[in-house]
Design a protein that fits this description.
Elements (H helix, E strand, L loop, with lengths): L14 H22 L7 H22 L8 H18 L6 H21 L1
Helix pairs in contact: 1-2, 2-3, 3-4
Length: about 120
């Protein structure tokens, strides 16, 4: 019975996944509530898409920063900016700002690649 030297929790033990899902549910409920009270101009769905993209990017940053939760999250690094662009495009006029989404995605991919090389 040797102890595993792997610091990464198994998928079932990864508490960050449950936390992220909980945050998304809280956002959805809050946005629907705000939309029912006419506090949102673009509608709750586009705000949810936008904010889920931000949550995905923040999760990727946390996973890169904390060794205990580090595992490949390339999917979220890519989908985060895409969701921000789609949701943000419906909320505000992003025609001139979308190249920044490409830059942020590229920076996150480079950081992720460098981290993989260090391990």
């Amino acid at each position: 019975m040797s102890e595993s030297t792997n610091l990464q929790p198994s998928y079932k033990q990864d508490r960050l996944n449950g936390f992220i899902l909980g945050v998304i549910f809280i956002l959805a409920g809050s946005l629907i509530f705000a939309d029912q009270h006419n506090w949102l101009q673009a509608g709750w769905f586009w705000w949810l898409i936008f904010l889920v993209g931000i949550v995905f990017l923040l999760e990727s940053v946390v996973r890169l920063a904390l060794p205990n939760y580090r595992h490949p999250s390339l999917t979220r690094i890519i989908w985060g900016p895409i969701l921000i662009a789609v949701g943000g495009g419906k909320i505000i006029y992003l025609q001139n700002w979308w190249p920044l989404i490409l830059i942020v995605t590229g920076v996150l991919l480079v950081i992720s690649s460098i981290r993989k090389l260090e391990n």
